[in-house]
Design goal:
The protein is about 30% helix and about 25% strand. Strands 1, 2, 3, 4, 5, 6, 7, 8, 9, 10, 11, 12, 13 and 14 form a 14-stranded mixed beta sheet that branches. The protein has helices at about 15-35, 55-60, 60-70, 70-85, 125-135, 160-165, 185-200, 260-270, 275; strands at about 1-10, 40, 90, 95-100, 105-110, 115-120, 145, 150-155, 175-180, 205-210, 220, 225-230, 240-245, 250-255. The mean pLDDT is about 95. Strand 9 (about 175-180), helix 7 and strand 10 (about 205-210) form a beta-alpha-beta unit. The chain has a single domain (about 1-285), classed as Carbon-nitrogen hydrolase (Nitrilase/N-carbamoyl-D-aminoacid amidohydrolase). It is of the alpha/beta class. The longest helix is centred in the middle third of the chain and has 18 residues, at about 185-200. It has 9 helices and 14 strands.
């Protein structure tokens, strides 16, 4: 049994880098002090770092993107140190990172207790990211083997696409860092996360940004909550909800997860969605059009 902590994370105005160090350290030590071994921060939580460049830069969409990208090395060093100090796995809040092309990617970085890191890029951009912000798709999905279990990451909108979930079908746990500005957006991602848990018979862990930050055009409004989901099957909650936080309430949501239960459901569940996935493929083009008047 392993304890997971997933964040409902507020976007704060920061005057100094030391404020971010103190904030992140406080969050990490609170969760690990409660016994958590896997900590999940949300999509675009790192955008609060744009405030360190001043109000004018923070209020500029492209300027704020570049300001945060310039801080990534320092952010990574801080997360690596905290992961080592606490002996925990930490999914850092995603951030715009300057990739190989002319445009940035939206990237989450996953840190091990050793301080080692794997970077995961978002696959499919929302309309805001592609039309207003100019974020591009990054490198492919990865299956990450850890001492805790096999981990995959679907960043926000990615969780709404079944074939991306299928690409991570070997994962015991799929992390879903999210950033949504309306209740409908929160529920789209939550429904996606719960659907991927059902289809691949795994645990999904959703983290969210919360609260208002009027000083930034990128994450000015945030609606969400932490949540940990599973297939509703034997030995697991009938609702498919292991834990859920209070909507828009900052803080950690905790869940005890037994991956042996996931393995058992995959082996001998009441249904076997993951095993039977391939059976839909020859049938998905067989729909017949009928006229009934």
């Amino acid at each position: 049994m392993t304890k997971i902590a997933t964040a409902a994370y507020p976007i704060d105005w920061l005057e100094r880098w030391s404020q971010f160090e103190e904030k992140l350290s406080s969050w990490v030590y609170e969760a690990t002090g409660a016994g958590s071994r896997l900590l999940v921060f949300p999509e675009y939580g790192a955008m609060e770092l744009a405030s360190l460049a001043g109000k004018e830069v923070a209020a500029d969409l492209q300027g704020s993107l570049r300001a945060v990208a310039e801080r990534i090395d320092d952010v990574d060093q801080l997360h690596a140190r905290l992961a080592q100090e606490t002996g925990s796995y930490i999914l850092a809040a995603s951030a715009p990172v300057l990739g190989q092309g002319a445009r940035p990617v939206n990237q989450s970085r996953f840190f091990a207790p050793s301080g080692a890191m794997v970077a995961q890029d978002k696959q499919i951009m929302t309309r805001f990211e592609r039309e207003d912000w100019g974020i591009q798709s990054g490198d492919p999905l990865q299956v990450i083997e850890t001492d805790f279990g096999t981990i995959g990451i679907l960043i926000c909108y990615d969780s709404e696409f079944p074939l991306l979930g299928r690409a991570l079908s070997e994962c015991d746990v799929i992390l879903v860092p999210s950033c949504t500005d309306a209740l409908s957006g929160y529920w789209r991602v939550r429904i996606g996360a719960m659907s991927r848990a059902l289809e691949q018979q795994c645990v999904t862990v959703m983290a969210s940004t919360v609260g208002d930050a009027a000083w930034t055009p990128s994450v000015d409004a945030n609606v969400g909550a932490g949540g940990v989901f599973c297939p509703p099957d034997k030995g697991l909650p009938d609702t498919g909800v292991i834990a859920e936080g209070q909507l828009n309430q900052p803080g950690w949501t905790y869940a005890e997860v037994d991956l042996a239960q996931i393995a058992e459901v995959r082996r001998d569940g009441r249904v076997l969605n993951r095993k039977h996935w391939q059976e839909q493929i020859p049938r998905d083009s067989m729909a017949i059009t009928r006229q009934l008047r």
